[in-house]
Amino acid sequence: MFGLEDMVVCRHTAPSFLTESAVLLANASSGLWVLIQKLAPPQVWLPSYLCGSIAGVVVKAGLLPKYYEVSPTLVPASLDWLEDVQPNDLIIGIDYFGFPMDTSWVAMAKSKGAWILEDACQALLSNFVGAHADFVLFSPRKFLGVPDGGILLCKHPLEEKDGLGLTLPPSEWQLKTLNASLLRREFDLVGKDRHWFKLFQETERNHPVGLYAMSALSRNILTHCVDYPAIAQKRVENYKYLLQSLPSLAIFPALPEGVIPLGFPIRAQERDRIRQALFDAAIYPPVHWPIKDIVPGYFQDSHELAGHIMTLPCDQRYTLKDMARVAETVRQSI
């Protein structure tokens, strides 16, 4: 989670995800929910390695998710599942950690009349996004200090945006997200009180899903107050440092041009022990994602990956000196 951005106007071109066709929602989950409501797909297909909130939205919309198998390298293990795709099905592909999703299945899926949603929640700043999809979903809070926000780009308009009937989410939730952002900002400046984390967890656990609009504050920050090129450059520099320092652990052993990473995902046999050593050093790598009780157990490769993966932080808040400390802590704990 990021502290609230500085309220300083940056003179940069508006980012590509803020086009006139963008539907600005309270969170990414609401973007998926809106899409399912408008398309009414008979089936929603999900990769077997994913954030559990995606499956939760599908269930909330009254559908039972169908899964296709993802390999340990985060690409579809085969294309056999496409035989069961029906016209108007919705298929979700994920830009894992900011890297482009595999598109080997897209042409065949479209030939069967399916809709393609690119989950770019981890690829807000990457420049390849949206080339093969009908819809694209972003989550700015994974990259920037905004209290709320999800963005749905539609190449095929659902209807006039004014006709969606978006309303503000519950005020209690809005106030808690803002308070968490402010407290996180204060924590970054002076440390000590970690009450922001409890609030953040509560807002994540109880986030509203529906026809809810992004706050004016988040919309204005995204439009006017973010130096996107500087953020992208910093993330790339930090990723490259970790890649040079920990090449054997990297899930992605190269950083292609145009990829702006969410973090530096690694795979470690003794993940939990290494993660605890990082916690002890005040370094907090999240796990993207725990999938137990979400994805069926017969997707063994995905469950095995979920048990050994974690994401080292390399975002714009950190310096190369910080990256050196992260890398050294990992090396000492292996």
Give the neighbour order of strands across the main sheet: 1-7-6-5-4-2-3
The CATH first-level class of the largest domain comes to Alpha Beta
Which topology of the largest domain does CATH recognise? Aspartate Aminotransferase, domain 2
- Largest sheet descriptor: 7 strands, mixed
Mean pLDDT: 95
Q: Beta fraction of the residues?
A: 5-15%
Relative helix content = 25-40%
What class would the helix/strand composition place it in? alpha/beta
Number of helices: 10
Q: Number of domains in the coordinates?
A: 2
Map the helices and strands.
Layout (H helix, E strand, L loop, with lengths): L22 E3 L2 H12 L4 E4 L4 H9 L5 E3 L21 E5 L11 H6 L3 E5 L15 E4 L11 E5 L16 H20 L4 H11 L10 H9 L3 H18 L18 E4 L3 H10 L19 H7 L2 E4 L7 H14 L1
Parallel strand pairs: 2-3, 2-4, 4-5, 5-6
Antiparallel strand pairs: 1-7, 6-7, 8-9
Overview of the structural elements:
The chain has 334 residues and is α/β, with parallel strands linked by helices. The chain has two domains: 23-164, Type I PLP-dependent aspartate aminotransferase-like (Major domain) (Aspartate Aminotransferase, domain 2), CATH 3.40.640.10; 228-333, Aspartate Aminotransferase, domain 1, CATH 3.90.1150. Helix content is 35%, strand content 11%. The longest helix is centred in the middle third of the chain and has 20 residues, at 171-190. The radius of gyration is 19 Å and the shape is globular. It starts with 22 loop residues before the first strand and ends with a helix. The mean pLDDT is 95.
